[in-house]
Design brief:
Elements (H helix, E strand, L loop, with lengths): L2 H10 L1 H15 L1 H15 L11
Helix pairs in contact: 1-2
Length: 55
């Protein structure tokens, strides 16, 4: 069975619904949104406070 089908089946199950709802709650938390924005900015090369290696 392809992985995408297994994921779809899980998300339709009661356990998958609970996991999806919990992920939505976590994503709506402003602190987690700020963490995600900071992480994306680092990947895009903006900000990051000069951490990391520069050659």
């Amino acid at each position: 069975m392809p992985l995408a089908d297994r994921i779809r089946r899980f998300l339709r199950s009661p356990q998958g619904q609970r996991a999806r709802n919990r992920a939505g709650q976590i994503a709506r938390d402003p602190r987690n949104q700020a963490k995600a924005r900071s992480l994306l900015a680092r990947f895009r090369g903006k900000g990051g406070g000069g951490h990391g290696r520069r050659y």
